[in-house]
Specification:
The chain is built from 8 helices and 2 strands, in the order ββαααααααα. By secondary structure, the protein is an all-alpha fold. It has a two-stranded antiparallel sheet with strand order 1-2. The radius of gyration is 19 Å and the shape is globular. The two termini are 22 Å apart.
Length: 229
């Protein structure tokens, strides 16, 4: 059954049987919760109000289009750190979901399971942008897919901001049930996926692309991986 977190920060299932202590080791879990916060503090020092800028890019098509056209490659440190923060935070959130619902892959648990999540997310992230690049090159629409890739990167970075708080709340904030926090972030992920889909549609429509290519891309590179997963 689905595990819950007891007051002593030890995972238990609903029958009260304690799960492995390795699943809730403060020696490593605290580090992966604190490191993203430190990196985000560095980003704030470098970029100033990155969350505000990212929210505008994610929720405003016009602002996102202007940000893409005016993007600068001279200051990439802050954006690179945000990608790292997003990867670490997403891996931690997936770990909490796996533990809560007793999903353990290849008999992994604890930090081994967390690193497995990080590896899968890193591979998926790199493959996503490799596919976007290749599709853009093959179809002769590189600039459009570059803009789409730019938007995806900003969505990933924006996701890191709420995850910083929610990941801390799950183990250390007992006033809110863990399942509620997990549902909140899952709904947030769904909203961001819908925004990503709409952003792709706007880019295709704005550039006058064929509806056939739009549907083909969605089926091959968006919906099929989800169904396979």
């Amino acid at each position: 059954m689905a595990p819950i977190i007891s007051g002593s920060n030890t995972f238990q299932d609903l029958s009260g049987v304690a799960l492995s202590e390795e699943l809730w080791s403060a020696n490593w879990l605290l580090y992966i919760l604190v490191i993203p916060l430190i990196l985000y503090a560095v980003v704030i020092y470098i970029e100033r109000f990155p969350a505000l800028w990212l929210s505008k890019v994610v929720f405003s098509n016009r602002f996102a289009s202007n940000a893409y056209r005016n993007r600068s490659y001279s200051r990439q440190l802050g954006h690179t750190l945000l990608i790292i923060v997003s990867g670490i935070s997403l891996s931690t959130m997936v770990y909490f979901i796996e533990v809560y619902f007793n999903l353990f892959f290849f008999s992994l648990d604890g930090i081994g399971l967390w690193f497995f999540n990080l590896g899968i997310l890193l591979v998926a992230f790199l493959l996503r942008f490799l596919i976007i690049y290749l599709v853009g090159e093959i179809t002769g629409t590189r600039d459009a897919f570059d803009e789409y890739g730019f938007n995806i990167a900003q969505i990933y970075k924006f996701l890191a901001v709420p995850l910083l708080l929610i990941n801390f709340f799950i183990p250390y904030f007992e006033s809110i049930p863990d399942i509620i926090l997990l549902v909140i972030i899952l709904l947030f992920l769904v909203i961001l996926f819908i925004i990503r889909f709409l952003r792709l549609a706007v880019i295709f429509i704005k550039r006058g692309f064929s509806l056939f290519y739009f549907i083909l891309y969605l089926c091959a590179l968006e919906f099929t991986p989800i169904l396979v997963f």
